[in-house]
């Protein structure tokens, strides 16, 4: 069954990169791509007609079709114009998709439509997996053929590891499971951690990591799986290891990214500035819905 991919587009450079990323995905599996633009009207005076400005959004959709068909000849693309706030409209749209793809920056006359924080807003609301593609991404960008997954200590990571393993197997990549842990500053200052306690904590975290590694190897016997365990800041470690990865996968509780990864600017670092695409896997991927275009004719065929 084809993978249903929704790509958000505002006509800017980051959107174009996201579209090319989705088109490349069509090389590895059957896909159905829908380009979605979100028409915002709250900037207009009450009662004002938005129709004269609609051609900008429809133009972004036409460009999206050209990008997809150029990057992946033979891959069809549908175009849908939605209305409302980008966060709300795309969260709703994700109910009808297997994958939501957005760019990490904006550079267009519709700048207000896709702020750099959109990925953070959608991370806890998407009903399907979401991939954020940095504007710097290139198909021939020298990636090292590795998929990295950030492992936490709760159930949210199980779905992320499973999805990362599936992606690695389909793409013929290595899988690298990364787990980082830290001790609260108050505890370290108070010198409450003895060498024995430290060793016990490290052993417990090592067990969490190896359980994930063994599960991935058992379910994907041909997959090359490596692991890293380290004490320290999770985002710094993940960012270093995934700097040239093909994909970074993280989990979510539908209330934000994996707990230890949401600290200050860390979410921004991972979801906006990372030099590789990042897949956010929701903890409850149950979804089924349909897309409702703004007006008749706003949805175009292939």
TrEMBL record:
CDD domains under this entry? USP-like (cd00293)
Domain (UspA) ranges: 2-134, 147-282
Task: Please give the InterPro entries that the UniProt record associates with this protein.
Answer: Rossmann-like_a/b/a_fold, Universal_stress_UspA, UspA
PANTHER family noted in UniProt: ADENINE NUCLEOTIDE ALPHA HYDROLASES-LIKE SUPERFAMILY PROTEIN, USPA DOMAIN-CONTAINING PROTEIN
**Which protein family is named in the record?**
Belongs to the universal stress protein A family.
Q: What is this protein identified as?
A: Universal stress protein
Per the UniProt record, the lineage of the source organism begins with: Bacteria, Bacillati, Actinomycetota, Actinomycetes, Micrococcales
């Amino acid at each position: 069954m084809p993978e249903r991919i929704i790509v958000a587009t505002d006509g800017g450079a980051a959107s174009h990169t996201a579209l090319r990323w989705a088109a490349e995905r069509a090389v590895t599996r059957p896909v159905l791509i829908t380009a979605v633009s979100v028409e915002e009207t709250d900037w207009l005076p009450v009662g004002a007609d938005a129709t004269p400005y609609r051609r900008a959004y429809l133009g972004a959709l036409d460009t999206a079709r050209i990008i997809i068909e150029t990057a992946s000849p033979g891959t069809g693309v549908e175009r849908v114009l939605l209305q409302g706030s980008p966060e709300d409209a795309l969260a709703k749209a994700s109910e009808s998709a297997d994958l939501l793809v957005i760019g990490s920056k904006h550079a267009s006359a519709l700048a207000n439509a896709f702020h750099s924080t959109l990925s953070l807003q959608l991370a806890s609301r998407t009903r399907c997996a979401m991939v954020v593609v940095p504007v710097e991404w290139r198909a021939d960008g020298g990636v090292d053929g590795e998929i990295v997954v950030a492992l936490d200590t709760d159930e949210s990571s199980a779905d992320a590891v499973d999805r990362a393993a599936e992606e690695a197997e389909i793409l013929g990549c290595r899988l690298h499971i990364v787990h980082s842990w830290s001790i609260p500053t108050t505890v370290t200052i108070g010198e409450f951690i003895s060498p024995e306690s430290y060793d016990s904590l490290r052993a417990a975290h090592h067990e969490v990591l190896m359980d994930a590694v063994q599960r991935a190897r058992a379910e994907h016997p041909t997959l090359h799986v490596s692991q890293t365990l380290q004490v320290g800041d999770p985002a710094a470690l993940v960012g270093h290891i995934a700097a040239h990865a093909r994909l970074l996968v993280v989990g979510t509780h539908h209330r934000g990214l994996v707990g230890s990864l949401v600290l200050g600017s860390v979410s921004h670092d991972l979801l906006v500035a990372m030099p590789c695409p990042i897949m956010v896997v929701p903890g409850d991927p149950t979804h089924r819905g349909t897309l409702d275009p703004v007006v008749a004719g706003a949805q175009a065929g292939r």
